[in-house]
Amino acid sequence: MTLNNTIEIDIVKASSSKIASVDFENLTFGNIFTDHMLICDFKDGVWQKPIITPYEPFLIDPSAKVFHYGQAIFEGMKAYKDDNDDVWLFRPDENFKRFNKSAKRMAMPEVPENVFIEGLKTVVDLDREWVKKGLGNTLYLRPFMIATGHGVIAQPSSEYRFMIILSPAKSYYSGEVKVIIAEHYSRAANGGIGAAKAAGNYSAQFYPTKLANEKGYQQIIWTDDATHTKLEEAGTMNVFIRINDTLFTAPTSERILDGVTRKSLIELAQRDGLNVEVRSVLVEELVNAAKDGSLKEIFGAGTAAVVSPIVAFAYQGTEYQLPQIENSFALQLKEDLTKIQYKLAEDTFGWTVKV
Ligand SMILES: *Cc1c(COP(=O)(O)O)cnc(C)c1O
């Protein structure tokens, strides 16, 4: 770390910790937050000094642009504790770069690297007791930025707030996930904001996902908006498809979010000597592979669940089951990745960063 990377952060510590009241064995994802949060405001064209304060609500003008025009972006990442009580981040530079890519697309100011990275390390270090040891225990980190400038005129805000909040999480088993292939609704379109982690992308998914839930499906596999013939993402995860022994995932694009899990799994699969092809899979190919038995696995990939195996998909009213298989690529790659994240395997890629 060079000297000009260090940053001064004012810290106001919580007078007492909430940690004793938390049942770490029974956590609902994203529901409980740690003792502290980081705030850094942008005004008069510059980022102000970051502060860490006790986690608490804050005042915001009702005309703030975040409420009216949805200028809001976020990241999702995790901290892990190894057996020596050291705390690690996983590829935080990737989240930092993606955050600023999202900021640019939403006409928001880019956050300085030291505010994002040093801010993360400082607040995680302060709440390191909240990172529990043992596979599956993590601290979910949520950096985000909202437009705080007042006035209901439809133009970019001149004031913003960058924040980091932290939520303890246990790896979750989401139950059996069945998906519907999108035939009408879209998550993203060319020229749109699908490659950004912009808040509006997620609210736009809620209604079609609710319709899928009512039919007994947990998620939607999104297809390209123009033709609905190419498989793109699964819910809010990237998607992998295994046909025979080849693993396919779509190339990232304006419509497909550049997931850190996706890109890490591709590298791990290549390291393990698996056959990986980065290309779009057609819905037609998927249906044919399901019919002739060559379709082995479909799984989502993302920070929250790491991998999420899919047991069945529906297309044009027909449901297709995935087979039960022994040598699951999904589980192998999940194990490869989590071992690196928890420092149980050597990190030959240089992905882990100590807090
Ligand atoms: C966040 C996200 C992903 C997964 O990204 P990770 O960096 O792996 O967590 C995939 N698709 C969408 C739409 C996302 O928002």
Automatic annotation (TrEMBL):
The keyword Transferase applies. It catalyses: L-valine + 2-oxoglutarate = 3-methyl-2-oxobutanoate + L-glutamate; L-isoleucine + 2-oxoglutarate = (S)-3-methyl-2-oxopentanoate + L-glutamate; L-leucine + 2-oxoglutarate = 4-methyl-2-oxopentanoate + L-glutamate. Its EC number is 2.6.1.42. Gene3D superfamilies: 3.30.470.10, D-amino Acid Aminotransferase, subunit A, domain 2. One of its GO terms (molecular function) is transaminase activity. Keywords: Amino-acid biosynthesis, Aminotransferase, Branched-chain amino acid biosynthesis, Pyridoxal phosphate, Transferase. It comes from the Bacteria. Pathway: Amino-acid biosynthesis; L-isoleucine biosynthesis; L-isoleucine from 2-oxobutanoate: step 4/4; Amino-acid biosynthesis; L-valine biosynthesis; L-valine from pyruvate: step 4/4; Amino-acid biosynthesis; L-leucine biosynthesis; L-leucine from 3-methyl-2-oxobutanoate: step 4/4. It is an enzyme of class 2 (transferase). The keyword Transferase applies. Its cofactor is pyridoxal 5'-phosphate. Signal peptide: none annotated. Belongs to the class-IV pyridoxal-phosphate-dependent aminotransferase family. NCBIfam families: ilvE_II, PRK13357.1. Acts on leucine, isoleucine and valine. This is Branched-chain-amino-acid aminotransferase. The lineage of its organism: Bacteria, Pseudomonadati, Bacteroidota, Flavobacteriia, Flavobacteriales.
